[in-house]
Structures are given as structure tokens and as C-alpha cells.
Specification:
This is DUF4115 domain-containing protein. This protein is of the alpha+beta class and about 400 residues long. Helix content is about 35%, strand content about 10%. The chain contains twelve helices and eight strands.
């Protein structure tokens, strides 16, 4: 193992020199020390932050490699301190071997003109970016593969083809083509709204008044045909206008008119009702009476619901007259009564009971339910009294 020898002596020896004695230069000494440390120029540059070209110039004692002569003293002392040499002795030996005369930093010669370098110098070789030992950077085109270019080209052609196909289909859809036909198109004549109007004539010397247009034609102009309202004639009008003495079997007979009038008068007297009506003429044959609030539902024979609600106290409902009588279902049987031709029947059942499938026919209700007793239910009596006072069709309880 090669070990580092002791620090070299900087003292000049007075002993006589032999034939093999030679002068050791500063650059050789620094290169030996750097080799002992196993450091390259780039390692020194990375650790001391000094360019490798300057380190090589220091070892070669080349002053021309430095751009600023005033920094030479600091570079030499820093490099000598890094190698373990005496900085002052190293700088003095560098000045003696390179013929360098240090100047003050503010002097004009400290930042003199840049010295010209020779291409053969070591510092110039290290500073040259195109040196043979510097790795070459690959060009941009060398990183592109031909297969990638072909794939991109095929993809572009595919996208262009799809776009062109879509554009062609869109043009075909929007295109309107006229195909010839054997039948020639007919010409629709325009309707003149003033077709039925007679033209107005200017008054001449012989005419006293100008002729006016027909009112019906003017009415057609200002009233569209869709808004025409049909004229309705009552049937009783023409029938009442028939005279029996002039039309029919009695037409032309002498004395027919007085006989017809007498027959009509007798028929009117015979048709008169001598009895006093206790129920209004428009009263229905069957009604549902609710003396207290109760839920009821009236359904037709096919199951459809005709009436369903909670009837309030005093409310009535007359079921419609159908081919088949509807049926009733109630949730409060004690509050529901029936009025059959003005006579109260019921109640439907006991209080709180649910009764269903009650056929709403006058005959069926009269047979199933007896006449109501006014003394048994005060709400029924109150409802009858209110109906009599308000003039509503009367309801007759039992015994009246």
C-alpha cells in the first residue's frame, strides 16, 4: 500500500549536489500530491469551486490561462492549501517559475487584456467543449424512431378519413334532390275574398243614388267561415203554429174551430190536479239523507264509484237513475236515512256499524226499511224542521 510521505521540505540543502540531483518543479510536486490524494482535475474543481483549466494552468505555471491576473494569487494559495503545501512558498515558487509579477487589485495591469491562448495548451483543451474526451450529446433527430413517425402518419390518415366520411354523410343528408314525375303539378287557384262583392258604380247624371254592395257579401268579408254560428230553430215554434182548422182531418169543416177550442178547454180542466202536493214536483224518487256526518260510497253495478265522501249533517244526495240500480256502503249506519217519494225510511242500521250492498231502488228501500220515527232521532226531526223552514222539498215522517 502506498502511503503519503511526510510534508516535503522547503529548506534549501547546502550539501553538494551529485550527478543525479535535479530541480523539482512546482507543477510536478502538485501533480504528485494530487495523485497521492487520488483526485482528478474535475474532483478538485468540484471541491474548490475553481475551474479545472485554472488548476491545470497552476500546475503548468501558465499565467496566460487566467482571465483576471489579480485572482492568480488566491487560486495558487487555495490549491496549495488543498494539497497540504505551504501557501506562501507555493505562490513564491509559482511566481519564480512562471515569471509572474503580482500586482495590486486596483492596478490597471490587474485586469489587463485577455492573453491569447494557443490551441496546444492544456488549459485550452480543457476549456474546449468539443474536446475528444468530452462526451458528445446526441442530436434531437437521433431520438426519434422511424416506426413512431409511421404510426403518427397512419393515425393522421385515419382521423382525416373519418372526418371526411362524416362530412360527406352530412352533405348527403342535407342535399335536396328533385325527381321528375309523370303527373304535372296542378296550379291552385287563389280565392278572391271580394269575389261575391259587386263593384260600386259612380253616380251618373241619371242615377239618383249609387248601388250598394250586398250585405251578405260584406258579412262574408269581415267574418271568417270558421266562426260561422249555425242558426237554431226551436221545434215548438213550427208545431205551435199549426192550425187544426186548416191542416189535418178537420180542415175545411164548418164549425170545426169552436169544437176544437171546447175540446182543448175540457182537456185542460180534466188534467188539473185537485190534490195538494206535499212534495215539490222536481223531487227525486229516492234520496240519501245524512242527519249526522257519515262516510258513504255509491257504486254502479260495474263497480265504478259514482259518489264517495263524508256527508255533513243535513246533506242530501240523489243517486242517478241507471239501468241497474247502484249500491250503497256507509260507515255510520245510524246517521243515514232514505227519502222515498218524500217519505223518510230508516235508519240504515245501528250507530257505528258498517252497512254495505244496499240496493238504491225505491221499491227495494221501501220493502227493506220501515218508515222513520221522528221521535226516535232528534237530528232527523231537526233536519225536517230546517227543510220545511227553508222551502226545500218536504220529507214526511211516519204518521204524517
Amino acid at each position: 500500500m502506498i502511503g503519503r510521505r511526510s510534508k516535503p521540505s522547503t529548506q534549501a540543502e547546502d550539501k553538494p549536489k551529485g550527478f543525479d540531483d535535479f530541480e523539482l518543479r512546482l507543477g510536478d510536486l502538485m501533480r504528485g500530491e494530487r495523485a497521492t490524494l487520488a483526485k482528478s482535475l474535475l474532483d478538485v474543481q468540484r471541491e474548490l469551486r475553481i475551474k479545472a483549466a485554472y488548476i491545470a494552468a497552476i500546475e503548468s505555471c501558465d499565467v496566460a490561462a487566467f482571465e483576471t491576473p489579480s485572482f492568480i494569487a488566491g487560486y495558487v494559495r487555495s490549491y496549495a492549501r488543498y494539497l497540504g503545501l505551504d501557501p506562501d512558498w507555493a505562490f513564491e515558487k509559482f511566481c519564480r517559475e512562471a515569471g509572474y509579477q503580482p500586482t495590486h487589485g486596483m492596478a490597471a495591469a490587474a485586469s489587463g487584456p485577455k492573453p491569447q491562448r494557443r490551441p496546444t495548451e492544456v488549459a485550452e483543451a480543457l476549456a474546449n467543449p468539443n474536446a475528444t474526451f468530452v462526451p458528445r450529446t446526441q442530436a434531437f433527430w437521433t431520438q426519434i424512431e422511424p416506426r413512431a413517425i409511421g404510426s403518427v402518419f397512419v393515425l393522421a390518415l385515419l382521423a382525416g378519413g373519418i372526418g371526411y366520411g362524416g362530412w360527406s354523410v352530412l352533405q348527403e343528408v342535407q342535399r335536396v334532390q328533385l325527381a321528375p314525375v309523370d303527373q304535372a303539378p296542378g296550379v291552385v287557384a287563389e280565392l278572391d275574398p271580394l269575389q261575391g262583392v259587386q263593384p260600386m258604380r259612380t253616380a251618373d247624371a241619371d242615377d239618383s243614388l249609387p248601388e250598394l254592395p250586398v250585405p251578405e257579401a260584406l258579412d262574408r268579408i269581415y267574418r271568417p267561415a270558421a266562426l260561422d254560428t249555425p242558426v237554431l230553430i226551436a221545434r215548438d215554434g213550427p208545431i205551435a203554429a199549426i192550425d187544426p182548422s186548416q191542416t189535418g182531418v178537420l180542415a175545411g169543416l164548418p164549425g170545426a174551430q169552436p169544437a176544437i177550442e171546447n175540446a182543448l178547454a175540457e182537456a185542460a180542466v180534466e188534467s188539473a190536479d185537485p190534490l195538494v202536493r206535499t212534495v215539490a214536483a222536481e223531487a227525486p224518487a229516492l234520496e240519501i239523507l245524512a242527519v249526522r256526518p257519515a262516510w258513504v260510497r255509491v257504486s254502479a253495478a260495474d263497480g265504478s264509484v259514482l259518489f264517495e265522501k263524508v256527508m255533513d249533517a243535513g246533506e242530501r244526495y240523489a243517486p242517478p237513475k241507471l239501468e241497474e240500480a247502484p249500491v250503497l256502503r256507509t260507515g255510520e249506519s245510524g246517521a243515514i236515512y232514505f227519502a222515498v217519494n218524500g217519505v223518510a225510511h230508516g235508519p240504515v242500521g245501528k250507530r257505528g256499524e258498517v252497512t254495505k250492498n244496499i240496493v238504491l231502488a225505491p221499491e227495494a228501500v221501501s220493502e227493506k226499511y220501515a218508515t222513520a220515527k221522528i221521535d226516535a232521532d232528534g237530528d232527523l226531526a231537526r233536519m225536517i224542521a230546517v227543510a220545511d223552514a227553508s222551502g226545500v222539498a218536504a220529507v214526511q215522517p211516519a204518521g204524517q
